[in-house]
């Protein structure tokens, strides 16, 4: 998933294709090499805010995620 929103700030919103009944269990993983990291906040039944960093600085990037729940 490419973060949409403010990629230059390393953050963006992700909306699930189908909402969950409750907030799901979420795992995020950065894609790329070197010192890259991915994290999230504001998890809800409809999506989350994703964050991407390279060398500990916010930057545009790509992450994968897995959301499981009902």
Written description of the protein model:
The protein is an all-beta fold and 70 residues long. The strands form 2 sheets. Strands 1, 2, 4, 5 and 6 form a 5-stranded antiparallel sheet that branches. It is elongated. The two termini are 21 Å apart.
- DSSP strand count: 7
Poorly predicted segments: none
Number of helices: 0
Radius of gyration: 12 Å
How would the global form be characterised? elongated
Helix content: under 10%
Strand content: over 45%
Mean of the pLDDT scores? 87
Largest sheet: 5 strands, antiparallel
Helix/strand class: mainly beta
For the termini, the CA-CA separation is 21 Å
Task: Give the ordered list of helices and strands.
Answer: EEEEEEE
Write a brief caption for the model:
The protein is mainly β and 70 residues long. The protein contains no helices and seven strands.
Compile the SSE list and pairings.
Blueprint: E1 4-6, E2 11-15, E3 25-31, E4 36-41, E5 47-54, E6 57-58, E7 62-68
Antiparallel strand pairs: 1-2, 2-5, 3-7, 4-5, 5-6
Question: Which terms would index this structure?
Answer:
70 residues; mainly beta; five-stranded antiparallel beta sheet; two-stranded antiparallel sheet; 7 strands
